[in-house]
């Protein structure tokens, strides 16, 4: 038990700040749609084929446009990308509302980049994934360590005093109460970083090999991107193929020969951007293939629920509040763990000099 306690404290002292910042940034991002506050961001969703087609043609006519993240319920703006961090928001008629030349001009973008990449791309993802595994260890070991002190349990939202013993007691008791929510946040977040970990989590739902196969990207090839792609025909074919689907993400090919992809969200999908995908020849607009997310392997469908659970994209305001509490708790526990470990460590006891009796 002493070894487990030492590992818990040292790992928390080294990685607690990362987890704390991830928890804080996640709590902020949960309410992103409410605080962006741009004109037309609160407009009701116009999902009819005509409106989406006209907006798509207007937005993609912008020089350098690379794709669209379409408006959704609760956020009425389309987002387009221009490369090198540049982008724009447009209303649902296709009129540009605001532009930016760098992600640093939009707080929701750089907070998202920090939360997912720590501003370090793939390397940052690895750090976050390792922090997630450490977080899983904290929760399990914390529950074990709490058990021996369960008789002294006192629930407080804030430490009674800012002394090391009071903070440790608060850390222990608040952590056991929030352990289920912290476990949900940590497990779902780590699933999106480390695919082997994710497959281990969803293994009870079905074959891992079938899940990997159903999620593997297809290898379609077509012609070079046309000067004026027929977006109207593509969107019409997508609506015919998935009548209940919402248009979510349109992406132009990154290199010659790659297809244009269009992601849709069917009504039964939890994932906000959906996994039902169509691929079109970039030159002719011909449909090359389609994937129905609701026909994927059961384990793959379980994996697709990780992000909406992690980011509170299901359950409405009540679940967003719950996940906000989870993020704020992680921020508090992680930051206090680092502070007490490095700046409030107990001082080693000094040996008292022996008095020499003299005759």
TrEMBL record:
Alphabetically sorted, this entry's keywords are: Membrane, Transmembrane, Transmembrane helix
One Pfam family it belongs to = PepSY_TM
Which residues span the membrane?
A: 12-30, 126-147, 174-194, 317-342
Has UniProt tagged this entry with the keyword Cell division? no
Q: Which InterPro entries match?
A: PepSY-ass_TM
Q: Does the keyword Membrane apply?
A: yes
Q: Which residues form a coiled coil?
A: none
UniProt name for this protein: Uncharacterized iron-regulated membrane protein
């Amino acid at each position: 038990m002493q070894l487990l306690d030492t590992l818990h404290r040292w790992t928390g002292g080294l990685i607690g700040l990362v987890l704390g910042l991830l928890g804080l940034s996640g709590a902020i991002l949960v309410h992103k749609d409410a605080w962006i506050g741009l004109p037309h961001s609160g407009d009701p969703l116009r999902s009819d084929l005509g409106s989406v087609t006209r907006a798509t043609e207007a937005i993609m006519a912008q020089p350098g446009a690379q794709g669209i993240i379409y408006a959704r319920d609760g956020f009425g703006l389309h987002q387009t990308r221009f490369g090198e961090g540049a982008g724009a928001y447009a209303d649902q008629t296709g009129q540009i509302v605001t532009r930016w030349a760098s992600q640093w001009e939009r707080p929701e973008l750089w907070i998202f980049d920090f939360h997912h990449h720590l501003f370090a791309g793939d390397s940052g993802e690895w750090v976050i994934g390792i922090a997630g595994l450490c977080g899983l260890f904290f929760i399990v070991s914390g529950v074990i360590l709490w058990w021996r002190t369960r008789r002294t349990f006192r629930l407080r939202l804030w430490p009674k005093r800012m002394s090391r013993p009071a903070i440790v007691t608060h850390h222990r008791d608040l952590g056991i109460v929030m352990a289920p929510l912290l476990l949900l946040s940590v497990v779902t977040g780590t699933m999106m970083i480390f695919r082997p970990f994710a497959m281990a989590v969803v293994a009870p739902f079905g074959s891992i090999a079938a899940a990997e196969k159903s999620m593997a990207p297809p290898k379609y090839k077509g012609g070079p991107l046309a000067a004026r792609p027929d977006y109207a025909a593509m969107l019409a074919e997508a609506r015919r193929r998935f009548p209940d689907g919402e248009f979510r993400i349109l992406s132009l090919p990154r290199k010659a020969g790659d297809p244009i992809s269009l992601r849709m969200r069917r009504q039964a999908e939890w994932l906000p951007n959906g996994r039902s995908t169509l691929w079109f020849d970039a030159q002719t607009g011909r449909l090359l293939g389609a994937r129905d997310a609701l026909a994927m392997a059961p384990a793959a469908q379980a994996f697709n629920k990780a992000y909406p659970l992690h980011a509170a994209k299901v359950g409405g305001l009540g679940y967003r509040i719950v996940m906000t509490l989870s993020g704020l708790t992680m921020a508090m526990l992680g930051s206090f763990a680092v502070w007490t470990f490095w700046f409030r460590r107990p001082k080693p006891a000094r040996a008292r000099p022996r008095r020499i009796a003299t005759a």
